[in-house]
Amino acid sequence: xxxxxxxxxxxxxxxxxxxxxxxxxxxxxxxxxxxxxxxxxxxxxxxxxxxxxxxxxxxxxxxxxxxxxxxxxxxxxxxxxxxxxxxxxxxxxxxxxxxxxxxxxxxxxxxxxxxxxxxxxxxxxxxxxxxxxxxxxxxxxxxxxxxxxxxxxxxxxxxxxxxxxxxxxxxxxxxxxxxxxxxxxxxxxxxxxxxxxxxxxxxxxxxxxxxxxxxxxxxxxxxxxxxxxxxxxxxxxxxxxxxxxxxxxxxxxxxxxxxxxxxxxxxxxxxxxxxxxxxxxxxxxxxxxxxxxxxxxxxxxxxxxxxxxxxxxxxxxxxxxxxxxxxxxxxxxxxxxxxxx
Length: 341
Ligand code: 5GP
Ligand code: MN
Hints:
- The chain is 39% helix and 17% strand.
- The chain is an alpha/beta fold.
- It folds into two domains: 5-209, inorganic pyrophosphatase (n-terminal core), CATH 3.90.1640; 214-337, Diaminopimelate Epimerase, Chain A, domain 1, CATH 3.10.310.30.
- Strands 3-2-1-4-5-6 form a six-stranded parallel β-sheet. A six-stranded mixed β-sheet has the order 7-8-9-10-12-11.
- The longest helix is centred in the first third of the chain and has 16 residues, at 31-46.
- It is globular and about 55 Å long.
- The two termini are 27 Å apart.
- Bound molecules: guanosine-5'-monophosphate (5GP) and manganese (II) ion.
- Manganese (II) ion is lined by residues 32, 96, 122, 141-142, 174.
């Protein structure tokens, strides 16, 4: 178990000395980004700090139910207000990402700001862009790390329902509802604490996982049936969706969430890729099993990064050319699959 007490004294001092604190989560924020952000916000309010929240772009539908999520300022919607918040901040806390470009269009302003910057994250290999980097990849989620930091810095354990539900949401979404191997006995002890604090778990599971449109389910069926290619000899499978496919099924943000995990349920497949056609580029999501480093494929070939088993990147070309390039990359990396079960 990592000793996080090395961070907490300095962090708590910073919290107490700062007049305006801004918490920033990453572009296309997921449950862990928003969960850890709202949890920190709750704690900082509790200790009497002046604190705001910002995210580079919009929240996905399945997170909008979260209490306090309506207080998150969206940079691309409220640029002026967000610029003022960045300017006024003397402490900026960045959660759940490890590279500054994950702040999207806010990156330049945040990096140029004179505020002290703290990173709280669980991704591997962070770029050095914060004054204090709390980067611990042994945690299943940034939410778990936030829980441990706050527990360590409070003599009286801090807890309230909004805080507990935010952290619970972060933990279930980043572990695929306890399906990925990343959670530990300690995670489950934290979850036990959160449940005892009154988390309504059925309500949250329904809001997060059973909240899709019929079109989304049809898109999923179409993606698996018509757009999935399985390459057993390379232990890989990929799914691609064109702009026209998404339009046909009235796609809204978040609809393709989880598709990339599905090919991993095929026997013998340990690397899965999802290509989504965007304006002028292709967004790629990668998932892998075991020791296959999907994040190395992401960073070496697709200007991206992430975790060993969940990562992403992008490629500025047509869908067809991107898939051709990807297949070449797979061939070049065939050696990596040799010892993967
Ligand atoms: P997803 O496939 O769910 O969009 O992303 C999975 C994980 O991959 C994210 O938690 C994030 O860590 C990482 N990731 C996704 N896209 C990118 C990207 O473009 N750049 C980097 N550095 N990481 C990404
Ligand atoms: Mn996370």
